[in-house]
Specification:
Helix content is 4%, strand content 30%. It is mostly beta strands and 158 residues long.
Length: 158
């Protein structure tokens, strides 16, 4: 991490000092949906740049293994390739999933945002410059923050 970093983080599990931000989202590809992820380090100013990107493949181990009947089955496919829609992001960024993890042991770290509705930069709760009540929680941590009294004044859920 940058020597001029204004905040500190030390993992409770492994002692690691760097954090990784990951975003997981889905795209429409014809009639199917694909899931992708990108990730990169959390920088000194709480911003991040995704350095890596990959498609998340479905777990093939869960499927029933079937024999190869290829030479016995009839080929009823057309010779023309099917037209598919262009890959499109599903237009609901609220469905994107963000994670902050220790870069060394991959332990998930609870975090919030500098602005409402996932705006601004990310502030992990285990960083030295995290101030309860100053940030907005990542949606999956809302209940936890409410129990701890960390929500912004006037931001209590209905």
């Amino acid at each position: 991490m940058n020597v001029h970093q204004p905040w500190e983080f030390t993992c409770k599990t492994c002692g690691g000092r760097e954090l990784t931000v990951t975003r997981v989202w889905s795209v429409l590809a014809g009639p199917n949906s694909e899931t992708w992820q990108e990730w990169g380090p959390l920088e000194a100013d709480h911003t991040w740049v995704f350095e890596f990107k990959e498609k998340i493949e479905e777990d093939q181990d869960d499927e029933v293994e079937r024999g190869d009947f290829g030479k016995y089955s009839e080929d009823d496919s057309s010779s023309d390739p099917e037209e598919y829609e262009i890959f499109e992001s599903e237009d609901n960024p609220g469905n994107d999933k963000f994670y902050v993890n220790c870069a060394s042991c991959d332990r998930e770290i609870e975090f919030g945002w500098a602005e409402p509705n996932r705006g601004g930069v990310i502030f992990p709760v285990e960083c030295s410059d995290f101030t309860p009540g100053k940030f907005w929680p990542e949606p999956r941590y809302l209940d936890s923050w409410q129990k701890k009294g960390w929500l912004q004044k006037g931001e209590e859920p209905l």
